[in-house]
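We modelled the chain as a single entity of 146 amino acids. Its sequence is:
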Amino acid sequence: MVQITPLTPADHSEWLVLWQGYLEFYEARLDDATTAATFARLVDGGIHGALARDDAGTAIGLVHWLTHAATWTTTDYCYLEDLFVSPEARGTGAGKALIAHVRDWASAHGSAKTYWLTAETNTTARTLYDRVATRTGMIHYQITHD
């Protein structure tokens, strides 16, 4: 059975393996300083994080989320920014458990909704997302600042 645990400073090495797998999945590269700053924000509470652990206690997945003010509600929205389950642990319920953890946390903290983005080509994950959430039909645009 998958267990979800809050991310702590002691989890750094297990988190880093998952984080690197996540970046590799999205063919992204981050410098070491950004990775270090990300982990620091996760454990100091600026951004929230949790790990999925298998029966042996091994970290098999991660989730990161944050809240932000919104113009369409008097409360916050919860943005699930990163979700990753190691390839060998996919299909174990870890992804669903991580999403449920964030959903429950957001609800308990008064967020009006939880939302996230994914790549159109991420068909495996989208199969799960279609079961646990509503696809909004919105299209994501961005401007990168140098």
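As a brief sanity check on the tokenised model: The helical segments are 12-25, 32-44, 94-108, 123-132. The mean pLDDT is 96.
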